Amino acid sequence: PCPRHNVPAKPLVVNLALCDQVGDLLIRCRYGLRVKRPNAESPDSGLTSPSSLVGGCSSYEVDPSGCNAEIRLGNRLEHENCCPHSPAVCSRGCGLTVKLRDLQEHESDCGGNGTSCSSVCVGARQRMEKQIRHLEEQLEQRTAESERIRVMLSGVVERLDRLDRHVTDRLQLLEINQAEHQDLLADSLAKQDRLQEAIVVVNELVSSIASVQPGGNVWQTFKCLGTFVGHRGPIWCLLGGGDYLYSASGDKSVKMWQVSSSNELLKTLDGHDGPVLSLALTGSVLFSGSQDNTIRVWDVAPASAEFGTCLKTLKGHTDSVSTLCVSKLYLFSGSFTLVKVWDLASRICLRTLTGFVRWVRALVVSQQLLYVGCGNSVLVIDLCNFSTVRSLCTDEEGNNVSCLSVMRTSAGLKLLSGSHDMSVAVWSLHNMLRTQTLQRHQGIVTAMAVCNSRLFTGSADCSMRVWAP
């Protein structure tokens, strides 16, 4: 009976499935472990006694000089009986215990007959002599390599000296040439200033002459009234709203101007991490798109407590937001080969218009039609079904449209498109024909806005022009 519970002992039934699972457990070979010895250097080699791995509460660590095999628990005895790191006793009678893998080499050097001390010394001396010869050969190789490196270094030093002298001579020659080029540059700048003055005079003469159609009818012309100065970078976008004009620049800021009377600067909006490329306005809320791939929402009501503060940041574009415009229900944002449509109230992206082959640089909405400036064309999209209904092309390939605006004049509704040829094209929305070309800027026309029956245009020449019909 059981000595503890005093019940008849019954034979246990072996659980074969559990035995197989236990037998499949992976363990390390006992000859790859050693007892962890704190505050002591770990030996580079040595044998682990089988008895030291059984019982006790010692902790163990991996022996880098031992067996590194991971074996199944069921194959433990089979592996450890033939493990190269298992201990074996010399059969020559010296009484020395060595690893199984070293037994054959030891027995070939062992004298046997119980002379363990002499056999160990002889074998150790032979191994030491062999190692000494090997070290001497390595020393000779290292000496030869050191000599070759010394010769190479001396050659490198000589070449560096020659190169230093050559560079010094070239620097002296460059200093002389730089002084000559500075004189030439100063002379060229003076000539350029005189040329710019002559161009301004010629442009004023040309703008004072009315363009005439082949039939003899005089076209309506625009005249420049003044120039705004204040930004530290190119003007990328202009927007008019009531008595105010908003200008976006490469200096990462948006400026708000009073244009009804004093033409003074009211507010500078800072917050973008890149050049501000586009603007859109609805009520007292201003949207600004930037090269940092975001759209910021600003409060621009002068009487508001949050005047000039950023209300929200819209994210979703993976490229620069190059243009913005609003309708009654939507905010449109243009980027590389696409246009995103946002709900104006919730400011959530509703859809993405794709299929454009180039950057969408300009957007404007008029009478349920969205005008998209892409490449050297202006695409007309019906907002009822978002399909393209017409395409207006500029004169030549590469003359890309950079900005768009719609203006109502006494001659009817006009579409104005600024382009890379430093001009503004005036299109009649009645017959979709170009009626006039405005030329006064000295750089790419990057922005335009209509405010108080006047047209404001911004350019990469860091200036804004004011035009009146």
TrEMBL record:
TRAF-type domain mapped to chain residues: 79-121
Superkingdom in the source lineage: Eukaryota
Name listed for the protein in its UniProt record: TRAF-type domain-containing protein
Organism: Macrostomum lignano
A cellular component annotation (GO) from this entry: small-subunit processome
Zinc finger (TRAF-type): 79-121
Any coiled-coil regions, as ranges: none
InterPro entries assigned to the protein according to its UniProt record, in alphabetical order: Rrp9-like, WD40/YVTN_repeat-like_dom_sf, WD40_PAC1, WD40_repeat_CS, WD40_repeat_dom_sf, WD40_rpt, Znf_RING/FYVE/PHD, Znf_TRAF
Molecular function per GO: U3 snoRNA binding; zinc ion binding
Repeat region (WD), residues: 228-267, 269-300, 438-469
